[in-house]
Amino acid sequence: MIDFLLARIGSAIVTIFGASVLAFAVLRAVPTNPARLIAGPFANDEVIAQVTANLGLDKSLPVQYLDYVTSFFIGDWGFSYSAGQPVLSQITERLPASAELALYAFLFAFFGAVLVTVLVSFLNSRWLDRFLRLLSFISVGVPPFWLALLFLMVFFERLGWFPGPVGRGPAPTGLYTGLFTIDYLLAGDFAGFGTALHHLALPSIALALGPFGYLVRLLRANLLDIINEPFVTVLHAKGVAPISTHFRHILPNAFLPTLTAGGLILAQLLGGSVLVERIFVWPGIGTLVIDGILRQDYAVVQAFIMLSAIIYIGVNLLVDILYGYVDPRVRRS
Amino acid sequence: MTEPPMSIPLLEVTGLKTSFTTPRGTVKSVDDVSFSIAAGKTLGVVGESGSGKSVTSLSIMRLVGRGGGVIDDGAIRLNLPGQPGLDIRALDEKAMRKVRGNDIAMIFQEPMTSLDPVWSIGDQTIEAIRLHQDVSKNEAREKAIEMLRLVGISAPESRVDDFPHQLSGGMRQRVMIAIALSCRPALLIADEPTTALDVTIQAQILDLIRRLQKEIGMSVLFITHNLGVVAEIADKVAVMYAGQVVEEGPVRTIFSAPRHPYTVGLLKSIPMPGGMRVDDAGSRRLDTIGGMPPNPLALPAGCRFAPRCSLAIEDCHKAPPPLVQAGDEHGVRCIRWQEVSK
Amino acid sequence: MRRLIAQLAHDWELLLGVVLFGLIVLLAVFGGWLWREDPLRVDILNSLLPPDLAHPMGTDDVGRDVLARFIRGAQVSMGVAISVTIAGTLIGGTLGLLAGLIGGWFDVVVSRIMDAILAFPPLILAMAVAIGLGQGIVSAGIGVILAAIPWYFRLLRSEVLRLRTLMYVESAQALGASSFRLIRLHILPQTTSTIFIQASSVFGFSILTLAALGFVGLGIQPPTPEWGTMITEGLAYALTGQWWLGFFPGLGIFILAVSANLIADRLRDIYDPKSGARLSI
């Protein structure tokens, strides 16, 4: 087990190294002058020269890379000129909003997909299965930002069922975790909890639909594979009831790829919220990043990209370890 | 042990018909199959793949529905000692689940894929025990260890927590047998249990089945395409071809005086160790069976074997031959059986 | 091919995918010829008109015809997505073939690079490249290509390794067949359908990712219409009743992505029924 853990952690570190080189290559070593990129289009030569020196762009590439990596890991993520604020504090300030949105989107996508797919496969109805397949295609193909727009037009403007583009709603008085729903619960304020959920509903569902469709397709295919395995016939021949066969044998066997994919989706959603935050005026990292792109204030965007990759690799690693814990074949090999 | 009177067999299958609906038509996989198995005895069912032997066994277990099959006709009766006979086809699903694994158990061809890969072998044995017996978890675990010991797994106390991928094919088949026999069934259906194993392991598994059969006093329905295996283990033999039993009888009769050209062909096509009289005259043309089994969607109107049969005459192609008695307990589905000799 | 056409007749999902896809293709190819409005002509007096006969998709905030912009957007999106798919296939596929055939250090190095690429969520990687190379449709396209390369790489590499272990390729090599011959005669014919299926998936991914990049401001620069950018432009009017600005371009993205995925999935079932679980997006 220790060997397994070490091997996985080692390979994650190698991947982080590769990803950092790639990010460095793409963002810093490109022909365009990164100093101009960072300083923005309105900077004069003096500012650019200063930024060049600040960035250490006069040094050799390997030295620049080392600077880049060390400053990232000590939390020196640069300075946002348009916000007049260090990037690190900007991001930490807005992380909870994005994290809460991603978390609820994940809950919808993951548990929704598992529940619906397992139920449909258990009921073994041809028509339900066809419907689910079509639903998964629609979900995977719909652009989340367009869906968010449609949601607002229908459920806010026409029907008035959900709040409009006003962000997260009123903040709870005591902020512990930064996640409004949890902070309201901690304060015992259930009305506030409801309000927070009400604001989360549309953006998180818009964000969740794509991953939902993907997970439905994945789990459905895996369930079909396992259902046709000989050991399922053996279980029936033992006299095991269908419900037990389905939930205690078939599901655990078919579930592992979905678990892996689920972890990656959670990590992707953190970055993917870029696509719906703006429409709901959600005060998260996504809005920050788009503003950064529009103002050509790239320090924030660069930090966001590296952060996304690290979260992605970290979650990947956690899932790998979890996978080994759940699947005896991986753990012992 | 109280044995039922010899006149009532443990399992009686009469006129069984099972079909599958495919996009290209209905396949009659089992077409009017009848046989019986006496308590404590072994019936070997022999045939090529696609002859309907596996579907027959799945029909007895009422497990054909999973593959889209339907039992169209026939009767399957299970006469357990000291109990009124059970009409398998009439049982509801819940009652049928009590029969499966408890009164009739089954082992399969593929030991590598017959076990749930994410359950330990002990848990899979315990599951079978607790389904049919009212015992605590710990008692079931003790019983599971005992069963694993019985099937020849060394150090079962520690191996009970192993997962299937840690065992060899032969070991997995032993585990399958332990699971199948954990409730001491009256009938064991063994569907090609040795086919996927190495030759040396095959003999061990056959020995094991024979030994446990004596110990438990169960009947065995042994399905195989290998006549050599049948000669070793069976009391009676049924030879199946294209969904029908073409010849049945005591194992000695079938091997010494087969009356169906297909049986003769099967016997000629495998190298048999001594003990059989070899009659040279007129047998050369049957050395291998030419041709292919008929397309199940377009079966011949007459005898299903006629297109491949060197003895076929015009009448053979006209009407399906009835099953006629060629001797004591010896049935054959051939109108020229009297002219057939080895 | 004949098998495909026969399949179309009784596979309504494949049929649906092909018809929807064909619809957008026809619109992109012949739309500009049938609908002669100029997508760039500003007409302030006729701004924000709802859909009617003169403007079937209405007009935008500066009075440009939305249908004309939709058609031009279809040309842009399809053109870029097709180029991206082809480039991704060629680069990723070639690298995969070479890694599988050469093996050794080349395989190790390229595989590591692919791992690094896969360490980024695809959208984020495309964003990074689009920013690094400077805003514009070409940078966005290169970003999407880079994100798509590892899929082809892994696919082709594993196919080559699998086929190499098969007897007939081994014996062909023993007979002295050159690597090029090996690829042309043994490996490519075996993998064409797999590549094509993968390409349909990647096409759907490209459409969605390009639109997403356009939406966050990293796509083609105005005034050239692109579906993702058009949705951004329609944002301001979405809640004041002018729904058509953002609705139609999104519908276009949706139809293209869904039909590409439908086609990919059906083809996978037809040609490669055992790999139902292999999904790429």
Structural summary, described in words:
Chain A: The chain crosses the membrane at residues 5-27, 101-122, 134-156, 196-216, 254-280, 300-326. Chain A: Belongs to the binding-protein-dependent transport system permease family. The complex is a heterotrimer of chains A (333), B (342) and C (281). Chain A is an all-alpha fold and 333 residues long. In chain A, 77% of the residues lie in helices and 1% in strands. Chain A contains 15 helices and two strands. In chain A, a hairpin with a 4-residue loop joins strand 1 and strand 2 (85-86). In chain A, helix 7 (144-158) packs across helix 9 (190-227), helix 11 runs antiparallel to helix 14 and helix 13 packs antiparallel against helix 14. Helix content of chain B is 30%, strand content 23%. Chain B has an eight-stranded mixed sheet with strand order 6-7-8-3-9-10-12-11, with helices on both faces. Chain B is globular. In chain B, helix 3 runs parallel beside helix 6, helix 4 (137-150) crosses helix 6 and helix 6 packs parallel to helix 7. Chain B is an alpha/beta fold. Among the domains of chain B are: 118-181, no CATH class; 258-339, no CATH class. Chain C is an all-alpha fold and 281 residues long. Chain C has a single domain, classed as MetI-like fold. Helix content of chain C is 74%, strand content 0%. Chain C is built from ten helices and no strands. At the A-C interface, helix 1, helix 6, helix 7, helix 9 and helix 11 of A face helix 4, helix 5, helix 8, helix 9 and helix 10 of C.
Alpha-beta content class of chain C: mainly alpha
- Total strand segments of chain C: 0
Number of domains of chain C: 1
The CATH superfamily of chain A is known as MetI-like
* Contiguous helical run count of chain C: 10
